Backbone:
């Protein structure tokens, strides 16, 4: 079981690398001409935060599922509200592609809230014999 745990953690860390690269490219585009002239200079920091928070939560969810339950619920709920507002066109004009992107991001965030809420109940029902916080497959 420890080997699977280790493999999952290493795989997750490797998956965070391309997310970081995409974030870097996007921030670079926002902070340089011609895009930089059209957006607020603090946009790069906001974009970085929107990439950083999910990456940290993914890591915490793997490393410490018990501790990350409430932060998962709170942050996923915040992301769900923001993504629903964006999907409804309350934050900016929408193209069909942006609408679809915001809609599936809302669904994913809502599912995160649901699974984070249900995780401890599943852990008590299935994983009690294996130790605190473990869930058997």
Residues:
């Amino acid at each position: 079981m420890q080997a699977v745990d280790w493999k999952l953690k290493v795989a997750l860390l490797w998956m965070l690398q391309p997310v970081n690269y995409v974030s870097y490219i996007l921030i670079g585009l926002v902070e340089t001409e011609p895009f930089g002239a059209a957006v607020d200079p603090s946009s790069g920091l906001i974009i970085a935060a929107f990439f950083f928070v999910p990456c940290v939560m993914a890591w915490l969810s793997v490393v410490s599922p018990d501790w990350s339950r409430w932060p998962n619920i709170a942050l996923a709920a915040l992301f769900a509200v923001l993504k629903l507002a964006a999907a409804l066109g309350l934050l900016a004009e929408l193209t069909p592609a942006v609408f679809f992107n915001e809609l599936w991001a809302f669904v994913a965030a809502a599912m995160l809230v649901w699974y984070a809420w249900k995780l401890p109940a599943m852990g008590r029902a299935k994983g009690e014999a294996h130790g605190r916080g473990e869930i058997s497959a």
User: Anything to note?
Assistant: Residues 64-131 form one domain. The chain has a mean pLDDT of 80.
